[in-house]
Design brief:
Layout: E1 14-24, E2 27-37, E3 42-46, H1 53-60, E4 68-73, E5 76-77, H2 83-90, E6 93-96, H3 108-117, H4 127-136, H5 152-164, E7 170-174, H6 182-199, E8 202-206, H7 210-216, E9 220-224, E10 227-232
Parallel strand pairs: 3-8, 3-9, 6-7, 7-8
Antiparallel strand pairs: 1-2, 1-4, 4-5, 9-10
Helix pairs in contact: 3-4, 3-5
């Protein structure tokens, strides 16, 4: 299913420079954040609840624009990019949201296939890949189920399949193993690792799962009180 590298750009996948963004009781949610992730890197983002991780992730997939400083994704400055440019950038990013954001009127299959469908590709070109991915995440018997009939763990697996289905150049995952059992969590992480290794997909995983972080020994960024620190390893 995952076969060939696609990321050929020579600039960093992500670059943040002196980003200050937002306020809570007079304090910056993010204060002077600098970060660079190179193509093909695999990095964890950790930190306590309320530290600004969600805000940081939203900046990294261009759901928000920085109030001060600069965020570049694939070399594109998100603050000056046109709407068309931002749309093109977002199509190269897979996002696993902590709250899933599935469409209740669509089946598991239709939700997973949505990133391919919106590009106008005919279904015959991607149906087999979507079905294979849903089988891989353990939903082969639930492809026609609507989100309201799925458990929280099943919904999360649909959300992960949706984020991976177009083999993104950048994957941003917010607690991707938070609602599944350890065995399925291990399977999902193996799939993400395969994407990272075979396609040089840049991966940033926000997680509170200490065992996952310790087991993979990837570089760690820690966000605390709006400040970003390198906790382990060389980033990028």
């Amino acid at each position: 299913m995952i076969t060939e590298p696609r990321f050929s750009d020579d600039q960093p996948a992500i670059r943040m420079a002196k980003v200050n963004h937002g306020y809570i009781k007079g304090d910056h949610v993010l204060g002077d954040v600098n970060m660079e992730l190179n193509p093909g890197s695999f990095t964890f983002l950790t930190g306590p609840s309320g530290s600004g991780k969600t805000t940081l992730l939203q900046l990294l997939y261009a759901a928000q624009l920085p109030r001060n400083g600069k965020v570049s994704i694939f070399g594109i400055d998100t603050s000056t990019a046109t709407r068309k440019m931002l749309t093109s950038v977002r199509r190269r990013i897979g996002v696993v949201y902590q709250d899933f954001r599935l469409l209740d009127h669509l089946s598991a299959y239709e939700n997973a296939a949505l990133p391919l469908r919106v590009t106008g590709r005919p279904e015959r070109e991607y149906r087999d890949d979507v079905m294979e991915l849903l089988h891989w995440v353990g939903l082969g018997e639930r492809v026609q189920a609507k989100p309201t009939t799925l458990s929280g763990g099943e919904q999360q697996r649909v959300a992960i399949a949706r984020a991976l289905v177009n083999k993104p150049d950048l994957l941003i995952a917010d607690e991707p193993t938070g609602n599944v059992d350890p065995e399925m969590g291990e399977r999902l992480i193996r799939l993400i690792l395969e994407l990272n290794r075979r396609l040089s997909t840049t991966v940033l995983i926000a997680t509170h799962d200490k065992s996952l972080v310790e087991r993979l020994e990837a570089p760690i960024l820690r966000l605390e009180n709006g400040m970003l620190m390198h906790e382990r390893g060389r980033i990028g």
